[in-house]
Write a structure and sequence with these properties.
Blueprint: H1 23-37, E1 49-56, E2 62-65, E3 75-79, E4 84-91, E5 97-103, H2 110-124, E6 133-137, H3 151-155, H4 162-181, E7 184-194, E8 200-201, H5 204-207, H6 212-217, E9 225-233, E10 236-244, H7 261-274, E11 286-290, E12 297-298, H8 313-334, E13 337-338, E14 343-351, E15 356-357, E16 368-369, E17 374-376, E18 382-383, E19 386-387, H9 401-410, H10 415-421, E20 426-429, E21 441-449, E22 452-456, E23 460-461, H11 463-477, E24 483-487, E25 496-497, H12 500-505, H13 508-511, H14 519-536, E26 574-576, E27 581-582, E28 587-594, E29 608-614, E30 617-623, E31 629-637, E32 640-648, E33 656-667, E34 673-679, E35 683-685
Parallel strand pairs: 5-6, 10-11, 22-24, 23-25, 27-35
Antiparallel strand pairs: 1-4, 1-7, 2-3, 3-31, 4-5, 7-9, 7-13, 8-12, 9-10, 14-21, 15-16, 17-20, 18-19, 21-22, 26-28, 28-32, 29-30, 29-33, 31-32, 33-34, 33-35
Length: about 675
């Protein structure tokens, strides 16, 4: 049986890409195909239906600051690979549903989640709700920002970016709709294992403050666990969903190209390299690599998380992505345990600024409370893989006068908040504003699919913090929940969550733990109550709900005024042509006069195409989503700009005649936007 020729009725045929895979990739592809041979043709398992979907969520590709490293000068200047939302829908025999969406974003902002749920409600009624939809982010630091409704997250972006926000919201809604429409009888299988050599603890000193039992549980101070779900329809695999803890920070603060980072490369490797997913026919097989408890897990294996395995950030992205992809495929092919039983879910909104935490969950066995959100001065130091300005060092507990004065001027902190947040030296209170500068009313959510429970939390949990939560949930659910997965970066974003012991170190992660020393115990308590309600079939109403802030957003950076081509030139004309011939492994490049990419994000499209002559026609072999291409935009002067399209010619590229296309859009002084296409001269390969 071949996955490329045998598929459930109603699914489109998949065309192979134009080139053969490399030897190493071919071996892994054969393993993936071999996994299909083991699947029984009549698999329909336990009355479940499954569906997969994918949609483009790429934001503004030029002159928008990126979200993650908080660098004002790190503005988008093109695309290395597009951002996607990948959705996995499941329904049981009783009609109960859930959908998990993995997105190539830095965070799922609360305003994004709110608008998505509003649109899903308009489209599907009560089918999808806050309780059964999980929206998760890979935490790439290489995407445009400005998609939050909370001030802090838009500060370094210079405001709210409507086009990026809309691309994200509408794309995620379309991914969910595609997965829902794709629902068909099938199975979900689960496999667990370990992956070593793809993460390192970037905050070892804080980790070492944990009790001996925690340190024994995680030799080397890392969490190597990986969980993989295998989605099948009629016995044929249609999707893969993997969780593994490593930051998506292989791309450094020096990068300005949109990239889904190492998890994006893992997704591309499985979908494109191993499954032959053609650029114009996405969705036949969807592979997602989601985050878990990655708060202190870095992919930068040298110098305690400061540097990647090599000095080349693109190579580092591929190395860490390939490790995740190849191990996930091994687990995928070995998956035999079927998730059986009903789907269940519980969700509730909690005001984490004032949670009374019972003694069962605190380290000293005494009751405590959480605090209004505040950031410590260690927040400004940044993490090892994204250091901040040289003002303070991580772990400094003595207040820094400069930061104290700056924080007081921007947002004064009351003595009560300082006492509550101790030993954190508070730099900025983000929860005391009206509205708060970071969200405080946050969702906690559990989704159960047979013997698997997803614990969805709206923050970056360290490895020990995440496992304390999943241990708590598993303890409440008992033996009926054989697998408990921590799904971090889900449904909203409120900084980090460390253990109380790690918090005391006040490294970057502890300084970024918003609600004080007892933030994690508060989450444990809330998830325990949620799990008990799920176990006992009790409802979990919310006493509070987050406010809608979408009607008070500002963008202080001007938009595109107009575009112009040099005198005597038109849009799409070439400033420089590719060479006449190349060998595989070489780099081909063309430079076009262009318009601003913010004029049209070209979602579900592309800014470039590499085409090969096929008889009397041309066949597209690569787009701006391929890892072999780069699209760079540059403002030449005034309203004149260029688009550089680069193609690293694969070693296995078919000999023949090729050309490079650039598709762009230009804005006139009157505001009219018109599309254009530029075409390079023909060149040969091989």
């Amino acid at each position: 049986m071949s996955l490329l020729t045998t598929r459930p009725a109603g699914r489109r045929a998949r065309r192979r890409g134009p080139t053969a895979v490399t030897a190493a990739t071919a071996v892994l592809a054969a393993l993936l195909l071999a996994g299909a041979e083991q699947a029984p043709a009549d698999a329909a398992g336990d009355g479940h239906r499954v569906g997969v979907g994918i949609a483009d969520i790429t934001g503004e590709a030029a002159e928008v600051a990126m979200m993650g490293y908080a660098r004002l000068n790190q503005e988008t200047s093109g695309i290395h690979s597009r951002q996607w939302a990948r959705a996995f829908a499941m329904a049981d025999a009783g009609g109960r549903r859930t959908v998990f969406v993995n997105t190539d974003l830095g965070m799922i902002m609360q305003g994004v989640q709110q608008e998505i749920m509003r649109r899903l409600g308009s489209r599907f009624g009560s089918r999808y709700t806050d309780s059964n939809v999980v929206l998760s982010a890979t935490h790439t630091h290489a995407g445009p920002g400005g998609h939050s409704h909370h001030l802090l997250y838009n500060l370094t972006i210079l405001g709210h970016k409507k086009k990026t926000y809309e691309a994200i919201v509408s794309g995620i809604v379309e991914a969910v709709a595609a997965a829902d429409a794709d629902l068909a009888p099938g199975k979900v299988k689960i496999a667990t294992g370990e992956l070593h050599g793809a993460n390192v603890n970037r905050s070892r000193e804080a980790f070492d403050r944990n009790p001996a039992a925690d340190k024994t549980r995680f030799p080397g101070a890392v969490d190597p666990s990986m969980t993989v779900l295998r989605f099948e329809q009629g016995g044929v695999p249609v999707g893969m969903l993997s969780w593994f803890a490593t930051h998506a920070t292989s791309m450094t603060p020096e990068n300005t190209l949109i990239s889904p980072d190492n998890k994006g490369y893992a997704q591309y490797r499985v979908e494109h390299d191993l499954k032959g997913v053609d650029w114009s026919e996405r969705g036949e097989f969807v592979a997602a690599f989601a985050q878990s408890n990655a708060g202190d897990m870095s992919p930068n294996l040298r110098d305690g998380g400061a540097h990647g395995p090599t000095d080349d950030e693109f190579e580092n992205t591929e190395i860490i992505g390939r490790l995740q992809a190849d191990r996930a495929v091994e687990l995928f092919n070995g998956a035999t345990e079927v998730l059986t039983g009903p789907i269940g879910h519980r969700q509730r909104y909690v005001d984490f600024s004032s949670v009374d935490v019972g003694p069962r969950y605190t380290p000293d066995g005494e009751p405590h409370t959480t605090c209004p959100a505040a950031l410590g001065q260690g927040f400004t130091a940044g993490a090892e893989d994204g250091p901040g300005p040289d003002i303070v060092e991580e772990g400094e507990l003595k207040p820094n006068p400069l930061l104290t004065v700056a924080g007081t001027v921007v947002a004064p902190t009351s003595p009560e908040v300082r006492r509550c947040q101790a030993p954190k030296p508070v730099f900025l209170t983000t929860g005391a504003q009206k509205p708060p500068w970071t969200p405080q009313i946050l969702p906690v959510q559990l989704v159960r699919i047979g013997q698997l429970t997803l614990t969805a939390a709206p923050a970056e949990f360290t490895v020990v913090a995440g496992h304390r939560v999943t241990d708590t949930v598993a303890g409440e659910l008992g033996s009926s929940s054989r697998h408990t997965v921590f799904a971090g970066y889900s449904n909203a974003y409120a900084g980090y969550v460390t253990t109380p012991e790690e918090y005391d170190a006040q490294h970057y992660e502890g300084a970024s733990t918003h609600f004080g020393r007892y933030t994690l115990p508060a989450y444990e308590q809330e998830f325990a109550e949620l799990a008990a309600a799920l176990r006992d079939g009790e409802p979990t109403p919310s006493a509070v709900t987050p406010p809608w802030l979408g009607d008070r957003q500002l963008d202080v950076k001007p938009g595109v005024v107009m575009d112009a081509a040099p005198l005597g030139k038109d849009f799409g004309d070439l400033e420089s042509q590719p060479a006449g011939s190349y060998e595989p492994g070489e780099h081909a490049e063309a430079v076009f006069y262009t318009g601003h990419p913010r004029n049209n994000l070209r979602n579900e499209g592309t800014f470039l195409e590499v085409q090969r002559r096929d008889g009397d026609s041309w066949r597209t072999v690569a787009t701006d989503n391929d890892w072999s291409t780069v699209y760079r935009w540059k403002r030449a002067y005034a309203a004149v700009s260029t688009a550089t399209v680069g193609w690293d010619i694969p070693q296995d590229a078919e000999p023949g005649s090729y050309r490079i296309l650039h598709r762009g859009d230009a804005r006139s002084l009157t505001g009219k936007i018109a599309g254009f296409t530029g075409t390079s001269r023909t060149f040969t390969v091989g």
